[in-house]
TrEMBL record:
PANTHER family: MAGNESIUM-CHELATASE SUBUNIT CHLD (PTHR42759:SF1), MOXR FAMILY PROTEIN (PTHR42759). SMART domains: AAA. Residues 47-188 form the AAA+ ATPase domain. InterPro entries: AAA+_ATPase (IPR003593), ATPase_AAA-3 (IPR011703), CbbQ/NirQ/NorQ/GpvN (IPR050764), ChlI/MoxR_AAA_lid (IPR041628), P-loop_NTPase (IPR027417). This is MoxR family ATPase.
Length: 333
């Protein structure tokens, strides 16, 4: 456990909606706005996914990740990624013990339930790649020895926009292993006023006040319920249409991978479950298309010259494709 106060646990049964709403309510004790971030972190936890949070410094990216980890009660470790961090600093290494005269394995911070990789794109590509095997296969290999990681295992990484100095773009293979990417923007004026009103008189109100509100058993059970959510054939076809359109779009050099297709379907299932439905509707697809696909598309030169973004491409695809009706989705059970 991460050290949160387990006496405040509210959810012991595995209802995905109750798990999500309880986590959201606890997060809102400290967090102002950013409901979408907590939603997708919950979705990732329930579908074995990983989340990338992007935004300028000071918009609470690390705070969001830490609040979520504490509310789940899972073990978590924060890794501050800098250019001098080495792969072994993440995965671990064998060190010599004078007392025994032998080498012993010292596990790295990746051996936890929730890894918070802070400012991941400040680390070199070689160090970033140390997370590849962990994120995909949930295991790491240290000097020829393969070790399994805890379950659940979620990487929540934060990064600064590429326009900032001292950052390295994540390799395509690394980006593809993140289930979703979320943009954490500067707060609206009303939200920022609420931040002033909430934290001005209460300087001690911070992530340390967040309690564990769900049990690990409830999380595991809720995860099983998510994969019982039904996706009717017309909705499956709609997902495939959206993915295929990313590959055929005239502004895209490389579209979404089959890994993205699987992530897309899982995310729609989880979104349906946490909103109390046993089947996926087209609105689930539309709501999750951008977080699932935005970091996976590589635009061509013409798009770059036209200042077109991946957000623009996804919006164009969703506006062009015909979606099935919600009635068709519900009736396909």
């Amino acid at each position: 456990m991460s050290g949160t106060d387990s006496t405040n646990v509210q959810v012991t049964e595995g209802n995905p909606r109750e798990v999500y709403e309880t986590l959201q309510e606890e997060a809102q004790r400290v967090l102002v706005g950013n409901d979408e971030a907590i939603e997708h972190l919950a979705i990732a936890l329930l579908t074995r996914g990983h989340v990338l949070l992007e935004g300028v410094p000071g918009v609470a990216k690390t705070t969001i990740a830490t609040i979520f980890a504490r509310a789940t009660g899972l073990d978590f470790r924060r890794i501050q990624m800098t250019p001098d961090v080495l792969p072994a600093d993440i995965t671990g290494t064998h060190i010599y013990r004078e007392s025994t005269g032998e080498f012993a394995l010292q596990k790295g911070p990746v051996f936890t339930n929730v890894v918070i990789a802070d400012e991941i794109n400040r680390a070199t590509p070689k160090t970033q790649s140390a997370l590849l095997e962990a994120m995909q296969e949930r295991r790491v290999t240290i000097e020829g020895e393969t070790l399994s990681l805890p379950d659940p295992f979620v990487v929540v990484a934060t990064q600064n926009p590429l326009e900032m100095e001292g950052v390295f773009e994540l390799p395509e293979a690394q980006r593809d292993r993140f289930q979703c990417k979320l943009q954490i923007d500067l707060p609206e004026r009303d939200d920022e006023r609420q931040i002033l009103e909430r934290f001005g008189p209460n300087p001690d109100l911070d992530v340390e006040t967040i309690d564990q509100v769900v049990t690990v058993d409830a999380l595991q059970s809720a995860r099983e319920h998510v994969f019982d959510v039904h996706i009717a054939d017309p909705v499956n076809e709609y997902i495939l249409d959206v993915v295929e359109a990313t590959r055929d779009h005239p502004s895209v050099e490389h579209g979404a991978s089959p890994r993205a297709t699987l992530a897309f379907a899982n995310v729609t299932r989880a979104r349906a479950a946490i909103h109390g439905r046993e089947y996926v509707i087209p609105d689930d697809v539309k709501a999750t298309a951008k977080p699932v696909l935005v970091h996976r598309l590589i635009l061509n030169t013409d798009a770059d010259l036209s200042d077109l973004t991946t957000d623009d491409v996804i919006e164009d695809i969703l506006a062009t494709l015909d979606a099935p009706s919600a009635e068709v989705a519900a009736g396909g059970e």
